[in-house]
Design brief:
The complex is a heterodimer of chains A (602) and B (240). Chain A is mostly helical and 602 residues long. Helices cover 59% and strands 1% of the residues of chain A. Chain A has one domain (36-251, 262-523): Cytochrome c oxidase-like, subunit I domain (Cytochrome C Oxidase, Chain A). Chain A has 16 helices and two strands. In chain A, strand 1 (255-256) and strand 2 form a beta hairpin. The longest helix of chain A is centred in the first third of the chain and has 37 residues, at 78-114. Chain B is mainly alpha-helical and 240 residues long. Chain B contains nine helices and two strands; from the N terminus they run H-H-H-H-E-E-H-H-H-H-H. Chain B has helices spanning 7-12, 17-25, 37-66, 74-77, 90-114, 118-149, 162-195, 197-200, 214-239, and strands spanning 79-82, 85-88. In chain B, strands 1-2 form a two-stranded antiparallel sheet. The longest helix of chain B is centred in the C-terminal third of the chain and has 34 residues, at 162-195. Classes of the chains: A mainly alpha (602), B mainly alpha (240). At the A-B interface, helix 6, helix 7 and helix 8 of A face helix 1, helix 3 and helix 7 of B.
Chain lengths: 602, 240
């Protein structure tokens, strides 16, 4: 294994960098508001992301109400509907999932799991959050400007995004683009911190190949984000210029209301390339942290080391690298040279290899494990199935000939909601149930948690399996209503009504989850130390929840990988990463071995 | 962030060449040995920024292909007349020369910084900033000339494809913004060096952290990057 023998324990290299003096807040404001502590920043990020995510959740109800019961709601006009789908998509992908995984979990877990006191540049990290908050506020502001938010669809394709027929084309689209640019600037500040912390600020003994997979996932996703967001940034700048100054980067000659517009000579396809050069890595920016976190959840809750750790790491890195050469599979119907379709279909299907390796390894981790069906474990198991389902429909859409008829139907909607919506969200839930005791010192309520899990898990299938079927029938996505379309059978309407009812019920379960968060934070059962008996460093801090500076007087020394479960010779079935091998002297001094950790057998 | 003498034992064990790279990456604590945090971070930032400029330049190439109107001849537009004889791209050539010279003074500033020769380092940084400001000043002159005298606008121009003006103002504007930011930070860093902040362990106003002369090198890395980007802009926008 990756752990070391007693003789080698003496070889743990000395600290290469002096312990960095932390900024110590003196006032309430610098401790909890303008805080430089990554843990506080993480909670600020998470609360903001979940808050704006709730807005997107409500939008999804309104979308479903319209789809399920057309002509029944006067307060949803076609323009409103387009604004709802645009804002729902953009908020969920960028402002919720990206921000929560990287800004939330990244900030909380990276320093704790690699054994650092904080991120390397806490001040920049703080700025990252405030710029993110500003981006969210600019986005929200677009509801209060004339014309409302943009209704261009979350992909914001020109030319329609800035033509007057699209809702929000006067101010909404500009606010959206400005908000995206701000988000990217803020994210870059945080992302630089995450990458540098993982590369340069690990504790003694924490080699890259001993890092928990959670950190590998977040780290790789951050690298992807730092390289993919520039394309979106450039696209946003250019579209803002098209919209405000009348340049023609993306705008061809075009007739609107029987009049030639001033535009001419631009390339709408250019926007699609830029957008998807960001957009496809974005899928993995969301998925890779989920992969990493779910690996750790499965390992901890089945008391088994992760199967094929090295393979898992290289699969994450490989998926990350491949994700940059597949973007045009989103553009099969945009009019590309067929050879490009061939190339991008091939690379797309190659991604299935590392992804399948991961799914096999997750399953094999469970094999012979001592599975504990805790709430995090339930969500982790649900993730495997859901990701597999969503991934398999991806194989269909990745092939040009199958994609062309399915493109722009509800099948696409169902596919990406399964693979990029539901699957990562399930991991987020599992991760929250898992790390809630660490963050608050209290367990989350079991009864509400079970209710939340079963309704969400089953509900997700009740909602999205029928939507796949609607796609086969040819029901197009993004349509306000079907009217009397001849090729769409009447059963579609009743199926849509059924899906809407299911979506509302699942939506209600999320409110139970929100209530559970607040209730458990103050009234939940007080958690014991290391309640899940995990090996990773974040549970081995001298105090729980971890205090400012994370590790007390001395930083932990790491002697082994993060998956030492069921090792022979120990009383407990797990060995924390910072516990010295039997017979070796601890180098850590006072706080090295935490309460409740396994003691070497006599 | 300062280097500890403790490290030498660990570092001397590392083999040379490719094996050394593997040994570093599979070792604990740091993937890039002897690289301070700030320097690692600026390199990653510059990699990200490279993608931004690459996207800008690729977009420029693509709109130049997509437009059906002929592209204006840059060597005529960016010519200045001396004694009635137009010299193509003369202003751009001077700007390029100035910016590349500023990279030289910057490199010397870094060297004197590490020698803790505060006065020379600070003066060289101020010289670099002056070069940078001159560059931006000449850019302002160029913009003014194009806008006021030649009637070039972001949405159109009298010479040909409207994308010419759009791309010109966007890319040189974005690059000029980078140079301006660099000038501001050069002045700030020069002030810190001049005052001896890195010797007296004076804390930063915002971050309340102690700095070291590595800050001069970080400044230098950014400056050289901005310079390098200009070389590409010069090659693919002005010369092509």
């Amino acid at each position: 294994m990756t752990s070391i023998t007693p003789a080698q324990a003496e070889l743990i290299s000395p600290a290469e960098v002096e312990d960095v003096e932390l900024y110590h807040p003196k006032t309430w404001v610098t401790k909890y508001v303008f805080s430089q502590d990554a843990k506080v920043i993480a909670i600020q990020y998470s609360c903001t992301a979940i808050g704006i995510g709730l807005v997107a959740l409500v939008l999804s109800w309104l979308i479903r109400l319209q789809l399920g019961f057309p002509d029944s709601f006067d307060f949803i006009s076609p323009s409103d509907y387009y604004q709802f789908i645009t804002m729902h998509g953009m908020i969920m992908v960028i402002y919720l999932l990206t921000a929560l995984f990287l800004g939330g979990f990244g900030n909380y877990l990276i320093p704790l799991m690699v054994g650092a006191r904080d991120m390397v540049f806490p001040y920049v990290n703080m700025l990252s959050y405030w710029i993110y908050l500003l981006a969210v506020l600019v986005l929200v502001a677009s509801w209060f400007v004339p014309g409302g938010p943009t209704g261009a669809g979350w992909t914001l394709y020109p030319p329609q995004a800035i033509l007057s027929g699209t809702p929000g084309s006067d101010a909404g689209i500009i606010l959206m683009l400005v908000s995206l640019a701000l988000f990217i600037i803020g994210f870059t500040m945080g992302g630089l911190n995450y990458v540098t912390t993982v590369l340069q600020a690990r504790t003694r003994g924490m080699t890259l190949m001993r890092m928990p997979l959670t950190i590998w996932g977040i780290f790789t996703a951050t690298v992807l984000a730092l390289l993919a967001f520039p394309a979106l940034f450039v696209a946003a700048v250019m579209m803002t210029l098209d919209s405000m100054l009348g340049t023609s980067f993306f705008m061809p000659s075009i007739v609107e209301m029987n009049e030639y517009l001033e535009y001419g000579g631009g390339s709408p396809i250019l926007f699609q390339h830029l957008f998807w050069f960001f957009g496809h890595p974005e899928v993995y920016i969301v998925a890779l942290p989920a992969f990493g976190i779910v690996s750790d959840l499965l390992s901890v809750h089945s008391r088994r080391h992760i199967f094929g750790y090295r393979m898992m790491v290289w699969a994450i890195v490989g998926i990350g690298a491949l994700s940059f050469v597949v973007w045009a599979h989103h553009m099969y119907v945009s009019g590309m040279n067929p050879w490009f379709g061939f190339f991008f279909a091939t690379t797309t299907l190659i991604i299935a290899v590392p992804t399948a390796i991961k799914v096999y390894n997750w399953t094999l981790t469970l094999w012979h494990g001592n599975i504990r069906l805790t709430l995090p474990m339930l969500f982790a198991l649900a993730f495997i199935v859901t990701f597999l389902n969503g991934g398999i429909t991806g194989l269909f859409l990745g092939n040009v000939v199958v994609d062309v008829p399915l493109s722009d139907t509800m099948f696409v909607v169902a596919h990406f909601h399964m693979v990029m919506g539901v699957a990562p969200i399930l991991v987020i839930f599992g991760a929250i149930y898992h790390w809630f005791p660490l963050i608050t010192g209290r367990m989350m309520n079991q009864a509400m948690g079970q209710f939340h899990f079963w309704v969400t898990f089953i509900g997700a299938y009740v909602i999205f399996l029928p939507i796949h079927y609607l796609g086969f029938l040819g029901v197009p996505r993004r349509y306000f209503e079907m009217g009397d379309t001849s090729f769409i059978p009447e059963s579609v309407a009743s199926l849509n009504a059924f899906v809407t009812v299911a979506a509302l019920i699942v939506g209600f379960a999320q409110l139970v989850f929100m209530y559970n968060l607040f209730w458990s934070a103050s009234k939940g059962k007080v958690a014991e130390r290391n309640p899940w008996q995990a090996t990773t460093l974040e549970w081995q801090t001298p105090e729980m929840p971890p205090a400012h500076g994370n590790f007390g007087e001395t930083l932990p020394v790491v002697y082994r990988w993060a998956y030492e479960y069921g090792a022979p010779g120990y009383d407990e079935d797990f060995v924390p990463q910072n516990q010295p091998p039997i017979g070796a002297s601890a180098e850590t001094g006072g706080d090295g071995v935490p309460d409740g950790a396994a003691q070497p057998a006599k | 962030m300062s280097q500890s003498a403790l490290t030498e034992t660990a570092n001397t064990l590392a083999p040379d060449g490719l094996q050394g790279v593997v040994a570093d990456w599979s070792s604990d604590q740091r993937a890039f040995k002897r690289v301070p945090w700030g320097k690692a971070m600026i390199w990653i930032f510059l990699l990200s920024d490279t993608f931004i400029f690459t996207c800008f330049l690729l977009s420029y190439m693509m709109v130049r292909m997509s437009t059906t109107v002929p592209w204006p001849n840059t060597s005529e537009i960016f010519a200045l007349s001396f004694g009635g004889e137009p010299i193509p791209l003369i202003l751009i050539a001077i700007m390029t020369f100035i910016l590349i010279s500023s990279s030289g003074t910057m490199a010397m500033a870094v060297m004197f910084g590490y020698r803790q020769d505060r006065v020379k380092s600070a003066i060289l940084m101020l010289v670099t900033a002056a070069f940078g400001a001159t560059f931006v000043g000449m850019q302002v002159f160029e913009w003014t000339k194009l806008i006021v005298e030649e009637g070039v606008r972001p949405w159109g121009n009298p010479f040909g494809a409207s994308q010419f003006g759009s791309v010109f103002f966007m890319i040189t504007g974005f690059h000029g913004f980078h140079v301006s930011v660099g000038v501001v930070f050069l002045i700030i860093t020069a002030r810190k060096v001049w005052r001896g902040d890195f010797d007296t362990n004076r804390r930063g106003y915002f971050t309340s952290r102690k700095g070291d002369y590595g800050a001069v090198e970080i400044m230098g890395l950014y400056w050289h990057f901005v310079d390098l980007v200009w070389v590409f802009i010069f090659a693919v926008f002005y010369l092509w």
